[in-house]
Amino acid sequence: MKDFFLKKYSMNDLTSGNISAIVEYTLVEDSIKYPTSPLLDKTQVPFSTPDFPLTPIYIFCPESSITLITEVLKKYPYVPHFNKCEQLFKRQETITYYNAAYIDDSEREFLVKNIEYGVNVMPLVDFLESKNRYTEVSLLNGDYFLNKEAFSVLRNRTKIATKRFFDIIYATQLLVLLSPVMLITAIAIKLESKGSLFYRQKRLGLYNIEFEVIKFRSMTANAEANGAQWAQKNDPRATKVGNFIRKTRIDEIPQLFNIIRGEMSLIGPRPERAVFIEMLKTAIPYYEFRHVIKPGLTGWAQVKYPYGASIEDGMWKHMYDMYYIKHQSFWFDFKIILSTIRVVLAGLGR
């Protein structure tokens, strides 16, 4: 088992967004690789109060996985029971398994026997996904990604072509519909401060290919004179117009051109800068897997966790992005679009 990353972060490092902060970590390894991260422990309180009664969850796994699973489940309203083979479960019950390749033969046969009697048997990660609509990345390993069914959507050429078709249609229509907003925004930016109208920045997209993202400029000139920084809530570098267009996400509208050019999609993980990718991938398990699909103008992470200015925020967004990559569909995209409209109208952007 690969235990938690042992990190030394100061609060200033996590909240300032200064990329020059050094990320130091030590990996504690065992015989089987289970990448994980302790960052979620800082943002969630274990369910141990009367308001959150614990529900039993039955898990079949190798002995080497018990410590990791127990630690992860402290963030959930479950009390785990491991490898209980005393009697068959009831038909309406659910039992889970983790890292099935290393489960004892007798326990594997017990799982099969329960399936024969109508018991719902499913992977632990899938069970948690079904309850929370995000992926518990602390429990991921290579088998999760090599499952042929789990990411079959990535190989479905019809769905990929259909999504590209609707991206072009929607992006073109939105450019026409929002052209008055873009014109007013351009005038406001020019009247308030000197500098270019648009802000261009290199980001990583599909298959780690770099492209130049286009946004309305929301900050003062030379905003990153001291080096790359995460955008912050109430960012002092933002102009008055910039604060407004960021909260309403008007600053993102020019990325519709990136969609038409095929560099982005309407829905997907937000594109990130290479310098931040290098930092985040050392702290967040399988962070670069986000590049198996095109980055999006909006996404599941943006409507569920709209603000991100630290490694912990990056972890949360990654969990939602991983869930979207696996479960993406036309109706899921439609739901995200409706949620994005709510975010824009409510001014909940960063």
Q: Kindly report how far apart the N and C termini lie.
A: 38 Å
Structural class: alpha/beta
Continuous helix count? 13
Order of helices and strands: EHEEHEEHEHHHHEEHHEHEHHH
- Tell me the overall shape: elongated
Q: Low-confidence stretches at least 5 residues in length (pLDDT < 50)?
A: 1-48
**Spatial strand sequence of the major β-sheet:** 4-3-5-6
Biggest sheet layout: 4 strands, parallel
Gyration radius, in Å = 22 Å
**Average pLDDT for all residues:** 82
Q: Report the count of strand segments.
A: 10
Helix content: 25-40%
Which percent range describes the beta-strand content? Answer: 5-15%
What would your notes on this structure say?
Helices cover 38% and strands 12% of the residues. It has 350 residues and is α/β, with parallel strands linked by helices. It has helices spanning 11-16, 66-72, 105-116, 124-132, 142-146, 157-177, 179-192, 240-247, 255-260, 274-280, 300-304, 311-327, 330-346; strands at 6-7, 25-26, 55-60, 78-82, 94-97, 120-123, 198-204, 210-216, 265-267, 296-298. The model is unreliable at 1-48 (pLDDT under 50).
Question: What's a quick, concise take on this entry?
Answer:
Helices cover 38% and strands 12% of the residues. By secondary structure, it is an alpha/beta fold.
Describe the structure using short key phrases:
350 residues, alpha/beta, four-stranded parallel beta sheet, 38% helix
Secondary structure topology:
Elements: E1 6-7, H1 11-16, E2 25-26, E3 55-60, H2 66-72, E4 78-82, E5 94-97, H3 105-116, E6 120-123, H4 124-132, H5 142-146, H6 157-177, H7 179-192, E7 198-204, E8 210-216, H8 240-247, H9 255-260, E9 265-267, H10 274-280, E10 296-298, H11 300-304, H12 311-327, H13 330-346
Parallel strand pairs: 3-4, 3-5, 5-6, 9-10
Antiparallel strand pairs: 1-2, 7-8
Helix pairs in contact: 7-8
